[in-house]
Design brief:
By secondary structure, the protein is mainly α. It has one domain (12-68). The protein has helices at 12-21, 50-68. The longest helix has 19 residues, at 50-68. It starts with 11 loop residues before the first helix and ends with a helix.
Amino acid sequence: MRLGLGLFQAPKLRYAEDIEAGRLVEVLPDFPPTPTPISVLYPRSRQLSPRVRVFVDWLVEILGPKLEA
């Protein structure tokens, strides 16, 4: 148990390391919550800046494989 939180629901990706290390225990693994979508929003009326494009590509590269698992 971490900090005495008891039971709570949170993104598994955020606590995967704690679960693997045995600091947290997953309860009801056969009944996961529905996935929460992640969206990137930007003004449609403007052209996407190179900085934003690089950031979006980075998010897809980093988070994509973890979210698919």
